[in-house]
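User: What would this chain look like folded?
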Amino acid sequence: MTEAETAATPWLIKGREYMHCNCAYGCPCQFNALPTHGHCQAIGAIDIEHGRHGDTDLSGMRIAMIVRWPGPIHEGNGEVVPIVDERADERQREALLRILGGLDTVPGATFFQVFSTTFSQVHEPVFAEIDLAVDIDGRRARIDVPGYIEGRGEPIVNPISGAEHHARINLPHGFEYDTCELGRGWATTTGPIELGLRDSHAHFAELHITGTGVVH
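Assistant: Here's the prediction, encoded as structure tokens.
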């Protein structure tokens, strides 16, 4: 590690994550392939059950994001609206924005840090109520950020029988999660980034992530 990396404020997050993008079920990005439609649009949110950034307690906080890239993520020119729980005090807001912005993180270690290198525009952070419920085993989620995000996640269903389809992804060296449950989602966003996502990839995961990467 470099001197800058070892001097970074240590942090960790444990909690439940819901991510939803415009790709087909499963999302080719999870397999180092190009996005289904050639570009990426997504929302994401995390309910932090236990977290800290240095001496700042982040437990009970929530964060979210709206992101968009004109092509594959690695080609850059993306934009993001970072969203932080309105209940956070000044220190918590600063800490959460640093984590979302990929700071205090070893390069390449987390999706926050990797995404941060691909944004050409970071919109003003939003401090708002984040109404979020994530049922990982049930593959269901609901998110409402007034004025910014309204969305839901559901299980994939068999088109013949209507039965719920159960599939998951395990990434032993992933930079976002270790294992996620797969589903589908719908979302509408307003504000600086307007999206309309319909019946496309979603995943639900138990996160344990730090400034040095995912704990597998």
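The chain has one domain: 3-214. If you want, I can go into more detail on any region.
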